[in-house]
Amino acid sequence: MTRIAAGDVFPDFTFDTHLHSGLTSRSVLKGKTVFWVLRYIGCTVCRYDVHMIAKRYEEFKAKGAQVYVVMQSDREHVVNDLQNTGAVLPFEIICDPDQSIYNLLSIRAAESKEELLGDGLEKLQAKGAAAREAGFSHGDYEGNEQQLPAMFIVDEKGTVCYAHYAASIMDMPSIDDVLNML
After folding, report:
1. Is residue 57 part of a domain?
2. 93-147 pLDDT per residue, tens
3. What is the CATH number for 33?
4. Predicted structure pTM score
5. Is residue 116 part of a domain?
6. Which domain holds residue 78?
7. 3-class SS letters over the chain
């Protein structure tokens, strides 16, 4: 499948979250839905991203939006990680351990560690330091360690309003950027 672009119809697929089974992408759309595709729950900076999205979730709701974070993690890892960190999320994490959603959405992995880092090493180090300062450390490794992130904002009719495929791990819109797009 080719990459999804703004104006395309977002694919309808079935998924499980850490809380629910058998949902479909079409059935969860209301207002604007952000599908924030990260790597896995054990990744320090991904944990931090989840924390920061949760911390600012009321701002998404105020804009009539909701967030689903997609991860390569299986349900057991997500549930255990959330219990171990004491996190209670105002959104759900889509569990995609076989990477069928990543494949459907044409989200590729980097071919090397150098490509994964791109020119964002300093940004990654700064984000890692902020994550450690907030109490996050690396957890279990899951899935493809070189998986690149992506993001899609989809309206209630299933039309993609925004699509971004990261060229490196740090090539993602900030929370402020996303909120401004909503």
Report:
1. yes
2. 999 999 999 999 999 999 999 999 888 888 889 988 988 998 888 988 998 999 9
3. 3.40.30.10
4. 0.94
5. yes
6. 14-181
7. CCCCCCCCECCCCEEEECCCCCEECCCCCCCEEEEEECCCCCCHHHHHHHHHHHHCHHHHHHCCEEEEEEECCCHHHHHHHHHHHCCCCCCEEEECCCCHHHHHCCCCECCCHHHHHCCCHHHHHHHHHHHHHCCCCCCCCCCCCCECCEEEEECCCCEEEEEEECCCCCCCCCHHHHHHHC
